Amino acid sequence: MKKLVSAGEILVEIMAERIGQSFLEPGPLLGPYPSGAPAIFIGQAAALGQPAGLIGAVGGDDFGRLNIDRLRALGADVSAIAVHAGHATGTAFVTYRADASRHFVFNIRNSAAGLIETNAAATKLLAGADHVHVMGSSLFSDRAIAVALSAIETVRAKGGTVSFDPNIRREIMQASGMREALDQVLARADIFLPSGEELFLFSSATDEKGAVDELLARGLSCIVLKKGAAGAVYHDHHGAVASSGFAVDEVDPTGAGDCFGAAFVSFWLRGAAPAEALRIANACGALAVTRKGPMEGIFPLEAVEAFIATGNTP
Ligand code: ATP
Ligand code: MG
């Protein structure tokens, strides 16, 4: 089976318990939960049985251990996660507003996560990789951008493939060079997985069909538009395949896009038809939102298949 690799932020997430809760005053918090978009992605891919590894860095603290233990338990290759004693693991504090939007307080660049590098372990992991997945949120510093671009070059040079989820977080977008890096990654991608309005950040078209046609003409193999509870639509040079979402009670939306992407890319790498890859991906995205915490709704393939067959959540 093909091995997939991602590189980027490994964080713990601390969540405000109440909708509309402000971080400007004390309030009840939930967590820590293992997190970081590429970590969620790699954890879900591994849970589905795909060989998958992550390049990143954590501190020599409980939060770092929490992340490494979880990824290992899910079956991921953690050999290229560096542990930096003397640095703290990165954090993401999230609070949900009444309009369902999210507000994050991130500590990424100045945490252990910011020390990401293409060291010997990362080079070794990439030597065995067939596919690289890049999250836009992972392009948080010059250093992180260099790691992502070099991973792409290494894997493409031996005929491997690339997927890209913009995963835009306004709180990280201020990083210098990020906008240019987002475009550079897209230009090298085979699979593009935007959600909602993200599609229009990369196209001059103002309608969905126009944007999809323009981006496909630039050399992508396919575009998968994530549409929250409504499911997703796949586009390639032959046409489109739509797949409606699964009905679940959403308790926490964070992580859905990462779990969806992991499932889609894993099944694309296995040669599954678009409709089949979309079905598993929609199921993983739906399951992700049924649990508080971005990785708590990751389940193995057997549980995902049982959910698809019965509609009952694990
Ligand atoms: P993230 O918050 O992780 O960045 P995203 O914005 O990238 O998510 P979404 O479109 O919110 O992506 O969700 C990805 C997929 O997860 C959807 O395409 C769908 O399959 C599934 N999903 C998300 N929310 C729900 C929901 N409420 N009910 C059922 N499925 C959902
Ligand atoms: Mg996302």
UniProtKB/TrEMBL annotation:
Lineage: superkingdom: Bacteria
Organism name: Mesorhizobium prunaredense
Keywords: ATP-binding, Kinase, Nucleotide-binding, Transferase
PROSITE patterns (UniProt xref): PFKB_KINASES_2
PANTHER family noted in UniProt: HEXOKINASE FAMILY MEMBER, PSEUDOURIDINE KINASE-RELATED
Name of this protein: Fructokinase
InterPro entries referenced in this protein's UniProt entry, alphabetically: Carboh/pur_kinase_PfkB_CS, PfkB_Carbo_kinase, PfkB_dom, Ribokinase-like
Disulfide bond listed as a keyword: no
Family per record: Belongs to the carbohydrate kinase PfkB family.
Gene3D superfamilies (alphabetical): 3.40.1190.20
A UniProt-annotated Pfam family: PfkB
Gene Ontology molecular function: ATP binding; kinase activity
Positions of the Carbohydrate kinase PfkB domain: 44-296
Keyword check for Kinase: yes
